[in-house]
Request: fold
Amino acid sequence: MFVYADNAATTSVSKAALDAMMPYLTENYGNPSSLYAFGQKASEALQEARETVARCINCEPREIIFTSGGSEADNQAIVSAAKLGARKGKKHLISTQFEHHAVLHTLSKLEKEGFEVTLLDPHSDGVIRVEDVAAAIRPDTALVTIMFANNEIGTVQPIAEIGALCREKGIPFHTDAVQAAGHMPIDVKAMNIDMLSMSGHKFHAPKGVGVLYARRGIVLTNIIEGGAQERGKRAGTENVAGIVALAAALKESCDHMEENTARIIPMRDKLFAELSKIPHSKINGSLEHHVPGTVNMCFEGIEGESLLLLLDDAGICASSGSACTSGSLDPSHVLLSIGLPHEVAHGSLRLSIGEYNTMEQIDHIVETVPKVVAYLRSMSPVWDELQKGERPHLI
Ligand SMILES: *Cc1c(COP(=O)(O)O)cnc(C)c1O
Reply:
């Protein structure tokens, strides 16, 4: 059985998205900047997509900029707010320890350019407290950027409360909503969000297309120079087909959010319930403040990478928090930020499911994971020491 349980990494393109984009890859291939009617067809499709996306998050179409993805949107939002602040002598930026690297690395770049960055610690439940944000705010704070939902542990942050606080203090507030868009209701007006990032491939649109929402009045800095596309804020011929697909996928996800959630929750709960029966396991992140489909757990005495390889052999695509892709063996910065010891963080597993998964697939996972964990423990010197009492159990 093949089970794709890594929807937080990417998703398949939905039929609605594919059907919507196809004409713009085939007969309607015009450049939206061309003046003739054939180009205007593409331009109209862009406008329609902008309106659709705007409706999904309750903003104006002109507040939507299409980008190459979530990373670009994060970069542009943060750099824009930093530049804007610097002009007023404000060079302090607030974020969190467990952001995506698109945010963290942009902040470190700005730090080298003379900005001061405060990274808040989430509590052990994986949730940032509004009081901690309030305490970090200074007269020279130029930006607060806090993710909507964490990509590794799925915890949801008190975005509306943070938005209200920032609005009251007159500080621009950006949220990386890549893991939330299409999966949870978002209302940028009600939540007082000034800037928001989304990525199509996390909600069944193709890879390489994203959205930056910037409230009217927020002055954006170009990070790509060139033509005057996207009201001069993002140069480059628009990815018309990708944008049309993104809008179709987002609309479909938002229209079916309740039923998708109702379908996903029982599968997620079964994963939590069954995998928690594994001795010396731990669920990471508050279950109260959580996106529907993300499950993150640690199993003591094993390495996440070995677990992933054996799950792959069993047809299961999952992920571990460890930054193995970057060639480093450091455990996940997210798991360390919620206070897990290195040894525990190394044995992590992220399963992220979506509405396309089935209960039969969940059954395959809950049958396989305990066997694989037991097998890895049977060969683990660390587990042996834990069993003999030569090393204390941490979970
Ligand atoms: C995937 C992801 C990104 C990056 O989006 P891309 O479109 O892949 O550039 C940024 N932030 C979070 C939270 C993500 O999960």
The chain has a mean pLDDT of 96. The chain has 13 helices and twelve strands.
